Amino acid sequence: MKKSALSDLTVGPALESSFPAEKLRQIIVPVDLTNDCTASIDYAIRFANAFGSTLNLLHLYQEPYVVNQSSRSPNCDLFNEQRQKVFADFYNLLRETRNKYPDSIGYFEYGDPDREIDVIARQLCADLLIVSLHHGKRLEHLLFARHADRILANAPCPVLIVREPGLGRSTSLATNI
Predict the structure, then answer these.
(1) CA 25, 30, 31, 35: dihedral to nearest 10 degrees?
(2) Could you tell me the residue ranges of all domains in the chain?
């Protein structure tokens, strides 16, 4: 270290890198199949390219809530068509992602995102979780904030929150858990 000519301040060595010291092997991107998830996928692809990571797209499917299930027969699957459409949409998104970054894996799971994202992140030994901050109506912001709080509180790794285009400034907020 050397003394600055302007004052008695000590000047340290320049930062060698802005990248994390450890390699990012597993990057997880939870997706909800809206157009809003594309920015988080694009960020994930940039990180994956830089670190040679595996990019994991994760969709957690929840059956719509039915008030009175007793009136239907056990062999009746009211949501089969919807589930198939959601799965097909996820598969198409995964295929598009693989065209951009071949080392991509898709996980179509059943469950509550608030409860399952951190569990799956632990199972996959995630090094980074990249989450989209959606734009939309005020109620959607309030609901997403609750999801984001739960994800941040339980995540086993750093979380990068990506602002989608058109949502205020175009920067991201990184949080190390």
Answers:
(1) -80
(2) 22-63+76-175
* pTM: predicted TM-score of the whole model, two decimal places: 0.71
Q: What are phi and psi of 27, to 5 degrees?
A: -110, 130
3-state DSSP assignment of residue 107: strand
CA dist 128 and 112 (Å) reads: 20
Q: Is the pLDDT of residue 162 over 50?
A: yes
Higher per-residue pLDDT: 146 or 11: 146
Look up residue 29 and give its two tokens: 């991107």
Q: Bridge-partner residues for 26, per DSSP? A: 54
The domain made up of 22-63+76-175 has a fold known as: Rossmann fold (3.40.50)
pLDDT band at 33 (very low <50, low <70, confident <90, very high): confident
- Please give the backbone phi and psi of residue 49, each rounded to the nearest 5 degrees, phi first: -65, -40
Q: Could you tell me which residues are beta bridge partners of residue 2? A: 11
Lookup result for tokens 């692809």: 45
Quick one: pLDDT at residue 72? Answer: 53
